[in-house]
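Why show two proteins at once? Because comparison is the fastest way to build intuition. When a single record is shown, students tend to memorize it. When two are placed side by side, the eye starts asking what differs. So, the first record is below.
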Amino acid sequence: MRRNKARLAGNGAPFPRAATQALLLVLFIYPSSIIIPIGTCIKDFRYIRKHVLYRNYLSDEVLNIMGYLVWTKDLDTGIGVIDGQHKRIVEYINKLHDARLTRDNKSIGDIIEDTIDYTMSHFSFEEALLEDAGYQFVRPHKKVHALFIRRVAEFQARYKAGEDVSEELHGLLARWLFNHIRNDDAAYVLAVKSTINSLTGDKGEGGWVARSFKKFFS
């Protein structure tokens, strides 16, 4: 699968000095050698402050009594290919739950690797879709992905060092995914859903979806 293109949203609690942190993230997004119009920076600043810094993670209500993630209708974006990939990630997270109960370390390691691999490919696919759809906040959306993958990679490193991180990682994945869909993804759905559905409407071998699946998931 493709290289890391992902990003993280934070620890869930409202950040102190959130405006300062949003500004620092905006500055981090743009290389210092590139001159970016001030209007673009302001838009990204407002996006990060609204969708990344001021948010709370979902409670344990996202899990049923068996510890499984349960997909609900409010998670549907209305973009079929994206919803399908989101549901696939949910399946991976639930597989991690099952493996954790069996205490099969090899299985846990394989599922962690597969989950990260698939999620990175999904992020790359989604980012390419947003770019082609002309989504104005694609840069900060990419940063949210990248920060998240960086954090998950830390869990993977801890696991490889012999630490049992399965329960902690499962909780992070469960809360972050649904929160990300309901906030960051919902924001682009409102802005460019019709354009995205137009791009993904061609199901033929030469269509956008087929070409992008081959590029990011092969």
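Second record. Ask yourself what differs from the first in the token line.
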Amino acid sequence: MRERIVPWLLAAGIALTAPAASAVIIDTIDLTVSATDFAAPSEFSFLSTKPIGPVSGQFQSLLSIVGTLTDSTGNPGGVGVAAVDAFLVTGIIDGMPLATGVGAGALGGGPYGPFSVATMIDAADFGGSIESFAVRLHFLGSGDGDSYSFTVSHSLSTLAAPEPASMALLGMGVLGAGFSRRRRAT
């Protein structure tokens, strides 16, 4: 019985050590913004769009934001931003906003973030392929000459299939384990 189990355990061990697929970044948008509002609260909106396509399959969308809010009058907590929509930062695929984003709610002064969120995307939900993606930063400043500085990023990545040479090596290991079992039986 032991002679039958050992080769298959060896083959299973080889299969478990096969190289795992790794994330491959398709493209990234980085947007750096500095803005100052004057006297009254001000609404700011920035959009950056990039063509990528067409690409199909399943992807991961990763949004991130980091920034600094500075109160020009020196009042602690006297500066802030509020999301005009549901989020300060929204990812957009082929012109359609994603349901998730980063930076919800009102924020106080000083360092902001880093915050990030990942969302799985299927190109089938966008007509079978994706041809562009974008990132939007949209917020309401608190007024009084305050300044805002943000760096926003939106990246799309996919999982790569293991390379053919690795799969061939794995297959040869499994075949070798099977032949060694057959040789012992005769």
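One difference worth noting in the second protein: Residues 5-18 have pLDDT under 50 and may be disordered.
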